[in-house]
Amino acid sequence: MDFKSKTVLITGASSGIGAVFCSALAERGAKLVITARREERLLEIARRLKDAHQTEVVVIAADLSSTDGVEDLHRAIEGGGHEIDILINNAGFGYQGEFEDTDLKTYRDMMQLNMNSLTELCYLFLPGMAARGYGRVVNVASMAGVIPMPYFSVYAATKAYVISLTEALWQEYKQKGVHITALCPGPVATEFFEVSGYNPSGADGRSIQTPQDVVEVALSAMHNNKRFAATSWPLRILNGIQKFVPRKIALAALAQNMKKS
Known about the structure:
alpha/beta, seven-stranded parallel beta sheet, 9 helices, 7 strands
């Protein structure tokens, strides 16, 4: 793909998969609009990318877990005269544990960030992409969204929403020059583990992907207009197997794996 004339909006850009998207797209010549809550980290990323790739990087700090976050971000983008060609909806967080063991605000913020803000950003930028006959959207979901997950219940439910929404939009927009992909990683070596409290089995590293691996899958899926992209062969196999395993058995196995001792 030729990114040299494209402007890319990346949410959750200050770390992990989002930061690697920034590097990969800057290296390919794209102009970046990057956003997250941590402005200092965004500014450091912008300085590094400008020095390394001589590309334009616009920093807009925003809290997309707040109800006004998307509106503030959109206003700043329009005010700066930036026309978004590619949207990377990467911002999100999770919580692992008993359903009642965290506070309601955590769940409200999670649902706002993982579902509402993602939906609003699609709503705001997809019409312009369709009108121009070109657009790319990657909604970062998770393999956790493929099946209900006890002790990861709300996070998994938000990602199931992302997959469902993305696949529906893929069908609506595929004849309009807009490619929309649900990216579904498994465990990835990012700050997600620290924030969510999730310590995956396979913490020896054998089942954990790097953000670089995930981003390369995402860029390929974006180019090929894949509606659903699992980020490794084991995850693709798991996605196939779960369709044939009785839901009751799968839930019991997941509960045993996800419950904290």
